[in-house]
Design a protein that fits this description.
Layout (H helix, E strand, L loop, with lengths): L21 H15 L8 H15 L4 E5 L6 H15 L4 E6 L2 H15 L18 E2 L5 E6 L9 E7 L5 H4 L2 H18 E11 L7 H7 L1 H4 L2 E5 L28 H20 L8 H8 L1
Parallel strand pairs: 1-6, 1-7, 2-4, 2-5, 5-6
Antiparallel strand pairs: 3-4
Helix pairs in contact: 1-2, 3-4
Length: 294
Amino acid sequence: MLPIPKWEPGNEPNPETSYQNLTQIKAAMREFFNLYGAAFWKGDRFQNYILSKLAELYNGNYQNLMVLCPPRSGKTAFAELFMAFYIKNNPTKKVFYTAYDRLWASEVVQHTIMKLQQPGIDLTLEGDTAYGQKNRLTNGCLLVPLGVGGPITGYGIDLGVIDDPLKNAEEAFMPHYQKGHALWYDTTFKTHLMPNGRGLFFTSRFHKNDLAGKILSNKTERAKWEVATIPALGNSLRSLDPLGRNYGESYDEEAFNQGQLLLTKANLGDYFWNARCQQQIIEYDDALFINNFK
């Protein structure tokens, strides 16, 4: 594995200066993902594309990265591996992981800590390991699980990860959740992000007013985010597709081939197929969904 430097507390470099260039970051990240994410990492074109975007985020090519991709594409596994890689290189930083609720976020944080305790990393816990608690690791690193809407009082965010903030379609169509998530993002997440901090947002779309939609529809806010959109089936010319696919080709032929995805499309119907799998929101009558949920 390429050497990953260790830094004395208070004297570590910013994430973008830890390596000499982006090529080194990508190589080190790929080896790290392969070693510590062996059950997940297969290095296909989809995973390598996401890895490249994560390396660019780490390098400081942009401050915030939003990844829009289908359900079951490994969003949480990517989040775990990136948090572990970031902490290994920056062991005094403050990392916050947010999911739809704190219990699930706590499980993800525990999985991340397990990676950090593997041979070759050996960061140890110094704080409470109970679910829902702040986790202090060697050298003062803080790794905190949150449910969306949760507090970040008292800390600045060096790396803030938001991972699928909506639990289901019912939440997505409720104005209460739409407004609450937007308010939390504006008044809690953004206000605690450090000047050199990084924001990472993994999600699959639900509604035009979900949190991703709120960010994307605001011209000023949209300009702050690099957005990587990967539809389940290629829907553009090969030269325009982020993975270089032909029209109708799956993002992951091994796990979800074209036939399986077309069956999913038939089962979901046009609206949810386009939103959840293609990351495209089409107009629909919200009242129909809300009435069906009552």
